[in-house]
Amino acid sequence: MRLHGKLEYGGQAAPLRTCVGCRVRTVSSELLRLVVVEDVIVPDLRRRLPGRGASLHPTLSCLELAERRRAFPRAFRVAGPLDPSRVRDHLEGLRVERIG
Ligand SMILES: [Zn+2]
């Protein structure tokens, strides 16, 4: 399904971003910003790294969706392949912290 047009901005203060995994549009503060450094996708936790970013829900399921859909090369406008292991490590760390 393809939504028509762009979301209207009327009164909306927070910038909206689309998760590259599940394609849900939400406020950017709920999403993890990712950038590519030498073909490795790295989480930009402080949102300070330069370059084209992609947004992802900080969950393994959205990471897997993005990988399956080959969404990362498209989002970063590179030919790929890209290494998502740093992002996976980060998300698995988050999960452990939440359980522990
Ligand atoms: Zn998502």
Low-confidence stretches: none
Compute the number of helices. 3
Q: Which radius of gyration do the C-alpha atoms yield?
A: 14 Å
Strand content range:
15-25%
Give, in order, the helices and strands.
Answer: EEEEEHHH
State the share of residues found in helices, binned by percent.
25-40%
The set of bound ligands, ions and cofactors reads: zinc ion
Biggest sheet layout = 3 strands, antiparallel
Structural class: alpha+beta
Query: Distance between the terminal alpha carbons, to the nearest Å?
Result: 39 Å
Rough shape?
A: globular
Could you tell me the number of beta strands?
A: 5
| Major beta sheet, strand line-up | 4-3-5
Mean pLDDT figure: 88
Structure description:
This protein has 100 residues and is an alpha+beta fold. It has helices at residues 60-68, 71-76, 85-99; strands spanning 16-18, 25-27, 32-37, 40-43, 53-56. The strands form 2 sheets. A 3-stranded antiparallel β-sheet has the order 4-3-5. Strands 1-2 form a two-stranded antiparallel sheet. β3 and β4 form a beta hairpin. It is globular and about 35 Å long. Bound molecules: zinc ion. Zinc ion (ZN) binds at residues 19, 21-22, 24, 57, 62.
Outline the secondary-structure elements:
Layout: E1 16-18, E2 25-27, E3 32-37, E4 40-43, E5 53-56, H1 60-68, H2 71-76, H3 85-99
Bound molecules: zinc ion (ZN).
Residues 19, 21-22, 24, 57, 62 line the site of zinc ion.
